[in-house]
Design brief:
Layout (H helix, E strand, L loop, with lengths): L1 E5 L10 H9 L2 E5 H10 L4 E5 L4 H13 L4 E5 L9 H8 L7 E4 L4 H9 E2 L5 E5 L7 H13 L3 E5 L9 H9 L8 E6 L7 E6 H4 L8 E5 L5 E3 L2 E3 L8
Parallel strand pairs: 1-4, 1-5, 2-3, 2-4, 6-13, 7-8
Antiparallel strand pairs: 8-11, 9-10, 9-11, 12-13
Length: 241
Amino acid sequence: MLYVVGFGPGKLDYFTNEAQEAIKESDLIVGYTTYIDIIREYFPEKQLNHTPMKKEVERCRYAIEEVLKGRTVAIVSSGDSGVYGLAGLIYELSVEYPPIEIEIIAGVTAALSGGAILGAPLTHDFAVISLSDLLTPWELIKKRIEFASEADLVICLYNPASKKRADYLKIACEYMMHYKAKDTVCGYVKNIGRLGQEAVICTLEELKDKTVDMFTTVYIGNSKTRMIQGKMVTPRGYRIS
């Protein structure tokens, strides 16, 4: 069996029971180095194998090949493995091998866990967009940002900045301000559910000059999003008598 496990933002409280059971049943846990460091704390007795960023294909092949040797393997990622995770890649690669059992274990993706910290920013339609251009051309990312903004969707940004992409959030905010008001309610959460968690609510104009990183999830409201009791809230539109 190959379990593809999303374990949420990292704190054990966010692991679903299903995720914990899959990891406990596995002979080997495979993942990105940062994720394995998180898992190690909670499952110190498990055999662990990790690879750095940009080694995703090698990591998935290794996991499949270990299953073919008769082992039960869990390949893990933070959040949900089907949201910018390895679930799709596992299926793509699996056709090159003899059939194996694959089970996808859902996890709490950052859009949801971070949203809960900020309040209720995703109560209505929203788009999730990654600003990483490692696998997606920047021109396509730009188009998605502009169309989502024009449609007045709440936008949730993953991977908003890195050392090589320090100004990507600023550029994205400038695109959005062609369609969204400068005072649109926005927010971001760093290190969701982990040590150093930080949550900030601000305007779109303020957001473009904020310093964020790969462990930050960013939320840009729609035209109805507002502050309620210090929280970021996007009304669904229920009539309140």
